[in-house]
Write a structure and sequence with these properties.
Rossmann fold; 14 strands; seven-stranded mixed sheet; single chain; Alpha-Beta Plaits; alpha/beta; 42% helix
């Protein structure tokens, strides 16, 4: 029924004999919210399409050669179109883990509450961000949005109050630029620092300082240690074995990232991630082209306590840090009130820095605190409308997993009028 086209053939710029193209979803796509995002992705490209009864195949009509190439380069929920694999199909093959969404450097460090990277790629397309645009995440967390933005050639600005998060995001996106230096110092790290590397954090960090390393290289080896700290604390794994294993896997993943950039000829975006407060962003008014973020579920998940072992290893006073984290301050009813006040300040900042007629995506769910549901989704929608946003889409997202503190989220897409 469908004629397979050579999309690199210059003749494809002319009218086709057959103008219907078959786009196939990835096999692991199974939830309603994923189909909704796939649908919105195609609509963002202004495609005219229909869907098969089985909801697996999409038939796209009358598409130009340039639009088909854009589909292949950007799309996230489709593995192919007329037997031509998408860039994302090749990207997710670069995976050192058993999880489909932990490809390239996404897997580094077990941070709770991570975004699904496929969703972030789709949302970046849906809100119309293109190469050279600026995407903001005021709660950059583990750096998922940063990495997906970089892959799509979209410039990224991220802030997080947690120094651990800032290290994660920077290592995942910046290590590709210093991989030679990382490899060069590997033997010295493993050989000359023993036994201190596996015993005393002060010795380890002091020796890193004495080596006068590039900050990107230094951050890489800091996060490598924190991975071993986490494995030892959470899973009781041998520190030395974990350090060596993760060091090798991290280097392999960075090599994979460099390889995929070359293979797909990607023009990657610039990434800037710093310690910062979402309630007081150091950005000019109307300066960013889009926002994708997930506010902290600190009411349901204590981020400071969860990463206490790593933050302490870095030398931070975790008791003092709690005063800066949204949702952790206060007790009982006061804690909820402070959380709501902080989030309203954050949303006002998002409105201020976003350009008019651009979109802000907030992924958030109703948390439970002291056996009582906190209707965060409803209050977020209400306040965002109050300050000048309109609600473009509200997509329900079910969360699966035995240890997830949240069972459902909402993907809220707002437009700044």
């Amino acid at each position: 029924m469908f004629q397979i086209k050579n999309l690199n053939d210059s003749k494809s710029n002319s009218n086709y004999d057959v103008n219907v193209f078959k786009a196939e979803l990835f096999d692991n796509i199974q939830f309603i919210y994923e189909l909704s995002l796939a649908d919105l992705e195609l609509k963002s490209l202004n495609f005219d399409f229909s869907v098969s009864e089985g909801l697996r195949d999409f038939f796209i009509n009358n598409v130009s050669h340039s639009d088909l190439l854009k589909f292949i380069k950007r799309i996230s929920y489709f593995q192919s179109i007329n037997s031509h694999f998408t860039h994302y199909y090749h990207i997710i093959k670069k995976n050192k883990t058993s999880s489909v969404n932990q490809y390239l450097t996404h897997w580094i460090y077990p941070y709770k509450g991570k975004f699904h990277p496929q969703m972030i790629r789709a949302l970046t397309n849906i809100i119309g961000l293109n190469q050279g645009d600026i995407l903001l995440d005021p709660f950059s967390g583990s750096g998922t949005t940063a990495l997906e933005s970089q892959l799509l050639g979209v410039n990224f600005i991220g802030y997080d109050i947690s120094p651990l998060c800032v290290i994660q995001g920077n290592v995942k996106t910046q290590s590709i630029f210093v991989i030679d230096e990382i490899k060069k110092i590997k033997s010295e790290i493993l050989n000359s620092l023993k036994p201190n590397i596996f015993q005393n954090n002060n010795d380890y960090y002091q020796i890193l300082d004495s080596l006068k390393l590039d900050e990107k290289v230094k951050s890489f080896y800091i996060l490598c240690r924190l991975l071993a700290v986490s494995d030892n604390s959470r899973r009781n794994r041998n520190f030395e074995n974990s350090f060596i294993k993760n060091l090798n896997l991290m280097i392999q993943s960075i090599d994979d990232y460099i390889d995929i950039i070359k293979k797909l000829n990607l023009n990657i975006g610039n990434v800037q991630i710093d310690i910062g407060d979402a309630r007081n962003l150091p950005l000019q008014d109307n300066s960013v082209d889009g926002i994708i973020t997930s506010p902290p579920y600190s009411i349901a998940l204590d981020y400071v306590k969860n990463d206490e072992h790593s933050l302490s290893d870095l030398g931070y006073d975790v008791v003092k840090l709690r005063d800066d984290f949204i949702g952790v301050r206060g007790n009982g009813k006061t804690r909820i009130e402070l959380y709501n006040e902080d989030m309203e300040k954050t949303y006002l900042e998002m409105y201020r820095v976003l350009k008019p007629n651009k979109y802000a995506v907030i992924v958030i769910g109703n948390a439970t605190f002291q056996s009582k549901e906190i209707r965060t989704v409803e209050s977020t929608i209400s306040f965002m409308k109050k300050i000048g946003f309109s609600l473009f889409k509200n997509i329900n997202k079910i969360i699966f997993g035995l240890y997830n503190v949240m069972k459902k989220e909402n993907i809220l897409i707002f437009k700044k009028e």
